[in-house]
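Technical appendix A lists one of the benchmark inputs used to test multi-chain prediction within the project. The record comprises two sequence entries:
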Amino acid sequence: MKDNPFSLWVYLSQSPLLWLTVTLLVYATTDAVSLATRRHPLANPVLHAMWIIGAFLLATGTSYTTYFAGAQFVHFLLGPATVALAVPLYENRRRVVSSIVPMLVALVAGSVTAVVSAALLAEFAGLPRDVVLSLAPKSVTAGVAMGIAESLHADPSLAAVAVILTGIMGAIIVTPLMNRTGVTDFRARGFAAGLAAHGIGTARAFQVDEIAGVFSGIAMSLNALLTSFLVPLVVTLLVR
Amino acid sequence: MISALLVLLVCELAGNALHQMLGLPVPGPVIGMSILAAALAFRKGGASSRSPITGSLERTAETLIRHMGLLFVPAGVGLIAEVGVLRSEWLPIAAGLIGSTLLSLAVTGLVMHWSIRRRASRRSPDTVHDLERG
């Protein structure tokens, strides 16, 4: 067994086990740092795990397909985790039912703002039409945004990139922005995070406060519904 | 834990099936979440019933949600692989996304905050006053 160490690497780097382990190890580290900084917005564990793993893949010349063969086991759990949001939703049902009207008002205002501002800012920046259409659904979960982009003959992979970027930015900005604008209510703070920054915002909200997390999950779900109706409408009205 | 995972998977599967069959614009897991919430609310014995399944479901759900950030990492790494789609327009795209994210966060948070306060003050002005002081 006096093999060339390189052949060991070639063997391991093709196995899903290595990339699953790397994903968990890097996230465990970035999450520990996040905890040590008392969940400072800039120490967002998702953001730092992303670029560290990305850099590692680039440095070792590993393709995303090879990486995903291992990471898919983690990715798969997104579905069950979304279903699991029903449990805290149910446990906090009284607070949810009592704020149903403010939620619906904020949903309409926020969803329209997200879609219209993304489309208009992209228009003003002089971006081509297919890019504008791919950016418009950026506040909803990747699956829905890609579906919307596809139905408008825009670029689904650009839509997915816009979704992830928005989620990361939203998760970082939400705490300082809500502090600055004087939004102290955790229901409102969480609802904003989930509406503007979908699941990544919801993961952040649950780190900060359970009530914020519950409202973030509701906002994420309702906005997926509203945005899929809103984007085609806004596009016909605003985009040339 | 097996029974809890089974409950979650069955709800997700049912959600995906409904999404596909009815062509709903909401993703399957979100429909699955609504199914599970309805099942919890209307289960036999009412909201107060405590079965072993409920306890295990609570623990499993709590674990999954507490580590939800981890679950976005594989897709997030894909962003780095796909960053080429931003082409030469990456700067206006990034600027537009930042602007729109700031606006939608602020509008949603403020509208909800005001709306909660308005309703509370209409119900009983004294309570709100106390809440604000406290």
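Chain A touches chain B through 114 residues (CB under 8 Å). The radius of gyration of chain A is 20 Å. Comparable benchmark entries are summarised in Table A2.
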